[in-house]
Amino acid sequence: xxxxxxxxxxxxxxxxxxxxxxxxxxxxxxxxxxxxxxxxxxxxxxxxxxxxxxxxxxxxxxxxxxxxxxxxxxxxxxxxxxxxxxxxxxxxxxxxxxxxxxxxxxxxxxxxxxxxxxxxxxxxxxxxxxxxxxxxxxxxxxxxxxxxxxxxxxxxxxxxxxxxxxxxxxxxxxxxxxxxxxxxxxxxxxxxxxxxxxxxxxxxxxxxxxxxxxxxxxxxxxxxxxxxxxxxxxxxxxxxxxxxxx
Length: 246
Ligand code: DC
Description:
- It is a single chain.
- The protein is built from nine helices and eight strands.
- The chain is α/β, with parallel strands linked by helices.
- The longest helix is centred in the C-terminal third of the chain and has 17 residues, at 192-208.
- Mean pLDDT is 88; it is low at 3-21.
């Protein structure tokens, strides 16, 4: 059994000395990097292999983006948005190893992948108040189970003491191709050029924001996935995890 609330790793204080024999800290595998670097695919595969919970932190920012679009909330008024967020339950559930996104009791798992929501998610992710709410929620999830958690600030802000940290990256063209493939499953007619440009814009917003910008934690292992297969990335990660968690 892993830790209970309040007994998480570093961010909540070093709890090791207060743990009972049967308890151990939850394992947090943190995977950060820009969109299209391959985080979701390898994080899901890794979670399945390890028997851990897969947590897509971007899904929570997307849920907030969905709220903005659905209720025509104003991005120019972050305080009102945060107040709205505080009275609107957003939940991730994990049936059969998959991840579902719920907003106020409504399942919005597929809706949060649309273009308008993607754009709104990037905007709300710049708001410190929104990040505070979501960071607290992610810490709670990571305190309840062993997780593979992917995002932009997992190893730097959410869990600076994560058990193992990775930072995935890839060339802009490869990242654009991966994103385009994903979008075409949803029947988008966007071109590669348009996708690469939109990604570059969101990336610079993610990297330049004042609060929790996208950056590599100094102790994260960098993996450039440009020329690697999913299997090769997963095997590289597994050997690092096995080295740390024998
Ligand atoms: O990973 P994604 O594309 O689904 O994330 C959606 C948005 O949320 C994206 O603009 C980056 C942002 N995000 C973030 O700022 N911090 C995270 N930990 C995860 C996502």
